[in-house]
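Q: Please design a sequence for this.
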């Protein structure tokens, strides 16, 4: 199961969905795409300082005071994660 933990100062994604075999897992691919797009968007579209780390089975982003642009990007990420969690509740949990 993928667990998404949203905190005031960051977001952590851990685990694997095991929805399908590696390379064919649409749940993992969707979560990964959302998270990597959030990171790239915050880097390229805002002046906010972020720190992130991505490794197999874990991704983490940390931030401080966010601009309104970054808050909107985080909200968009959260909407996407909620949609995936609603569609695949046995594979994605939001904590």
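A: Design:
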């Amino acid at each position: 199961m993928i667990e998404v933990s949203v905190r005031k100062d960051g977001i952590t994604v851990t685990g694997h969905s095991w929805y399908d075999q590696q390379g064919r897992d649409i749940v993992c691919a969707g979560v990964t795409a959302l998270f990597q797009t959030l990171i790239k968007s915050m880097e390229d579209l805002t002046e906010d300082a972020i720190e992130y780390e991505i490794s197999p089975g874990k991704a983490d982003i940390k931030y401080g005071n966010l601009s309104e642009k970054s808050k909107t990007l985080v909200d968009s990420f959260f909407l996407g994660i909620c949609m995936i969690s609603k569609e695949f509740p046995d594979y994605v949990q939001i904590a």
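Q: Thanks. Anything notable?
A: The CA atoms of residues 27 and 87 lie 10 Å apart. The longest strand covers residues 2-7.
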